[in-house]
Amino acid sequence: xxxxxxxxxxxxxxxxxxxxxxxxxxxxxxxxxxxxxxxxxxxxxxxxxxxxxxxxxxxxxxxxxxxxxxxxxxxxxxxxxxxxxxxxxxxxxxxxxxxxxxxxxxxxxxxxxxxxxxxxxxxxxxxxxxxxxxxxxxxxxxxxxxxxxxxxxxxxxxxxxxxxxxxxxxxxxxxxxxxxxxxxxxxxxxxxxxxxxxxxxxxxxxxxxxxxxxxxxxxxxxxxxxxxxxxxxxxxxxxxxxxxxxxxxxxxxxxxxxxxxxxxxxxxxxxxxxxxxxxxxxxxxxxxxxxxxxxxxxxxxxxxxxxxxxxxxxxxxxxxxxxxxxxxxxxxxxxxxxxxxxxxxxxxxxxxxxxxxxxxxxxxxxxxxxx
Length: 371
Known about the structure:
Layout: H1 3-13, E1 26-29, E2 39-44, H2 47-55, E3 60-65, H3 80-90, E4 94-97, H4 99-103, H5 109-117, E5 119-128, E6 132-139, H6 144-153, E7 167-176, E8 191-204, H7 208-218, E9 226-230, E10 235-250, H8 252-262, E11 269-270, E12 278-287, H9 292-297, E13 302-306, E14 321-324, H10 327-330, H11 334-345, E15 358-360
Parallel strand pairs: 2-3, 2-15, 3-4, 12-13, 13-14
Antiparallel strand pairs: 1-4, 5-10, 6-8, 6-9, 7-8, 10-12, 11-14
Helix pairs in contact: 2-3, 6-7
C-alpha cells in the first residue's frame, strides 16, 4: 500500500483536526508516495524503536507521542530526538504521530483508559469548544434531497447519537445575472424571484473542505450561495478526559489496588484519603493537572491522571482522591488500540516476505523506572 492510503485510515481513526493547537501530529517524517512494506506501532518513536523497525522490515512507524514536538533547527544527532530522526531518514522510515488527535476522540485514549478499569457509561470530561460549525445553503425544491444526502455522506448532520440531522425552511430568493452569467432559472439580465429551500446542517470543523466539495458538485446553480458559522456549542463527544462510574463502589485502598493491577503501575502517588468510597471516576491520560477543577465540579470521587506536582495534590481539598498513576501507564494500551484498528481497516495489506505487516512494538519506551 502507498503511505497516502494509510494516512487516510489513520485520519479516520484520529482526525488531525481533533488535536490540540500546541501539538505536532500527523506525518512527521517521510514521503506520502512511499510504498509501505510494514507498519510498526509504538508509544514513542525512539532510536531503539527505529532499530526494531529496521530489523522487522517496517518502513512506517506509527507512534502515540510525536518524537518531533517543538522547533528544531539542526539534526546533528546530539540528542535522543535527533538520533531517532537521523536513523529514520537514513533508512527511509516514515514516522506518523497521533497524540492529542486520539486523546480527544470518543473512542481514543481515555475511552481505552476507562475500559481497562471497568468504568461504565463514561462521558467527556472537558468537551472541545469551537469545533462545531453550521453550513447554510439555498436550493430549488427539486434538488434538496440530492444536496442534503451529499452533505450527509460527507459527514454533516451528526448530533450526538443521531445522524442525518438538518433543518429546512422555504423562502423567496432573487437574483439578476450579468453578461457572463449562465443562470439555471431565467435569462441573463432578467430579475428572477423563485422559491428556494434553505438547508442548514452542522458539522465538525475538519470536514469543511469535504462538505463544500460535496455542495458544489451537487448544486444546480452556477454560483452557489452558502454561509458558514462557527458555533459556541461544546462538542459533547469530543474532548479531553472522561468521567463515568464503576459497577460497584470500592474503598479507596481497593480502588488503588485495582488501578495498580489493571494498568501495571510501578507505584501510585495520591492525595490524602477522604474516607469515602469510590464510585464515580474521572480519568485523563497523560499530563492532566489542569482538569482537577473539572473532576471536582462533576462530582468525581477520584481523578486519575499523571505528572501532578507537589502543590497540586492540595487541590483535592478532601473532596476527591487525586492519583498520579504515571504518564506511560495512563496511556499504556493506546498502541494496542492502534494496531487493532489498523488490522481491522487494512485487510488487503500485502507486506514483503520479511515483514509480518502490522506489528506491535516490543520496546518498552517508558523513561520512568521504579526501585
